[in-house]
Structures are given as structure tokens and as C-alpha cells.
Design goal:
mainly alpha, single chain, 14 helices, three-stranded antiparallel β-sheet
Amino acid sequence: MKKVLDSESKFRCADKNVTGNKKADSDRGKLLLDRAILCAEWQVRNQVKDRQDANRGRFIRSYDQATGQTALTGNWQTGTALMALLAVYRRTGDARYLEAADFAGHYLMSLQVMDQSEKYYGVIREITPQSIEFAPRDATSAAWAFVWLYNFTGNETYLKRAVLFAEFHLKYCMCEGWPMYACYMDNALDDFYARGSFQSGTGLFYHDLFMASGDPRYIAQGLRPIADNYCKYFVGEDGRLGQEREIFTWRAKESASQQENVHIRMHMFNDDFGVPMLQAAADMFKDENYLQAALRFVRWLAVHLPKHFERVDSAVPMGAMYFSDFGNRYKDRKLLDACEWAVQTLLKTQYVDTGDAKLDGAFHGSYEGPAGVPGGGKCCINNRTTSYALIALIRLESEPENIWLGRRNKKFIDPLTLGMHKLVW
């Protein structure tokens, strides 16, 4: 990433506009919105739109300029890009973003198993309709996108698709209050039973599905046990996240802290929405302990992310949102300073005016091309970081109501506090 930061010809650095020196809020807001729209335009420009192409609705997952290698999004990255675009639609009213999200939703529907005679009825396959695998957490992000498409369009089909997945997930993918890691549909491989910390965001899917459907099982069997187990088994006293535990013993994998696997290291910093899940749990259950667990991690992240962000770039936009939320809530100057650092770092890594349509507007992200190729990884994007950056920019610019990951979304109000219903018929 440093090579990109040092190459002024590759993008325009805007750190002079975000130095935290009391510049007008309107100037900062305009900068963030302009950059968000550049990013949204990248998503829309590079989406597959040909109705005769079975990939219609997919976005670019990763692209490297040196190798020319381009991959398309599977279930979860299609879902996260879709939900971020809905937030841009909410902010701007530009119907093209809603249309792009609808295209993406239809691709996700093509991945869902709809044969009621199958055990896997309701599952959302990992990459294409031919995939034999699904990771429950990845598939959850796709189903989450169905929830938000329903919220925006009112199309009942999307809600039904989300419920179908949730019913399968509750029955087959939850074990003692925590989701499974990876599943295989052809019986050639055993399912992977490890408990991964990155499953934490599943609880927020169940929260949002409850708010859309009204079915309290999604809180009782989804959000609550996931939030409780996350606090108990994964968030350390110093805020550091444990990465993996055995399925029945809950024992930590001893080598987790020494793992060289990029996903283990990444999820030490990118918690995959564990923090907003705990925020939702705190709101739902009126329990500050969930916030305290989240705060421990956020403070740990503020100290350690600046040292490692080049290897875990997807954590930067997430950190920006977390540092803002908790910095403002607890009047914590260190977290607010960390938010400024994260915003500056994020804006520096957006490609602008390179002349490459597959780069401009996206954010530098993890290289997924072959090793040893000259120039490989120097100018590359990854939709994981790009979609997270897009939602972070929209949230930090104006925090629209009722968007994915929004803190100004509608809250649950227990009918008990409103009094008895007045029946007519």
C-alpha cells in the first residue's frame, strides 16, 4: 500500500482537507460525500448488467492493474456492496443506485437453493449457482442484503428469501448459540466446525431481520446468544479478539495468535461487525455490559490498527465508524483522534483520476493475484475494503436514517411500554 500512497500520479491525496483543525463541517461533509459518490459510481460502472449474462448483478471483487486479473463478487461481497449502495441511494435519491442494488439482489436469488425436498433449502451458495460450498457467515451477508432490499423496496419476495435462509441457519448452522464456520453440500468433505470470532456480525443480521419481520425468535435464538457468547469467549479483558475456538469445548486454538493465515490476522482488526452487533444488543436488552465489551475492543483497535493497517486495510473504514461512535458517546479524545487518522488514511487510499475505470473511485485493498508477478499488488482494489469504505463515508458524512449499519435506525419499542392495543374488530 505504501507504494500507492507515495505515487501522486495514481491518486489525489486529500489529507489537507481532513487535518482535524476545525475546518467547516460543510467542507468536510462535501469532501466525504464527493468521495462516496466516486466510489458508488465505481461500483455501478463495473457491475455486470447484460441480461443475457448469468453474472448479471455481480460487482468486481478484486482487480490488479499489473496483472489485469479481475474477479467477480460472490455471495457476501455482492451483499455488502448492495447494502452500501442502498445507503447512497438514501442519501442522494439517485435511482440508479437502487436499480444496481436490485440487480445484485436478483443475482443473490440465483444462488439460493429453492428445492424444498433438499436439506439445504434456503441456503445461499458461496460464489455461483454451481458452488457446492457455503460459509454460514458469508451466506448471512447475502441474506442480510435481502432484508435491506425489502426495507427499501417493500418487495415481499426479498423478505421471504431472507426468512428462508434464517430458518435453515437456525436449524442447521447454529450450535450452542454460535454459527458454524463452513459447510459443504456434496458430502465429499466434512463440515468445518470451528467457532470463528468473525461470526459475530450474524447477530446483527438477526436483529435487522426481526425488525423487518417481527419474529422474536430471531432475537431469542439469534442476537442474544451470539452477543452473550461473543462477550464471554471472544472479547478479551484487554480488548483483543480471540480468533478461533473448538466447537464443543469452546477451548481457544493455542496457535491462533501466531497464525500466519491472513484471515486470522485480518479478523483481529476487522471484527466483521461485532461492534455494531453489540451496540444493537445493548439497545435491545438495555444492558451497558455489551457496550463495555465493544468499547474494550475499539480502544484496543485505536492503539494497534495504525501499526498494522497496511496488512488489514479493510479494518480502516470499520475503525473510522467505531472510533466516531464511541469517541462521541464517551467523549473520548483518543478515539476521536483515531477517527481522524482513519478518515485521512482511508481517503489517501482511494484511486482518483488514474484513467483506469476499474480503479477510479475504488479503494486500495488486499491483493488476490498470483505471487511473484512484477508490480502485482501495487495498484489493486478489493471490494471488501471498498464497500466498507463506502458505508463509512456515508455514515460519517451525514448518518442517514434507516441504512445498513446506521446508528439512527428505528429502534424496537416494546408494546408493553405503549399500553394495551385498542382493537376495532
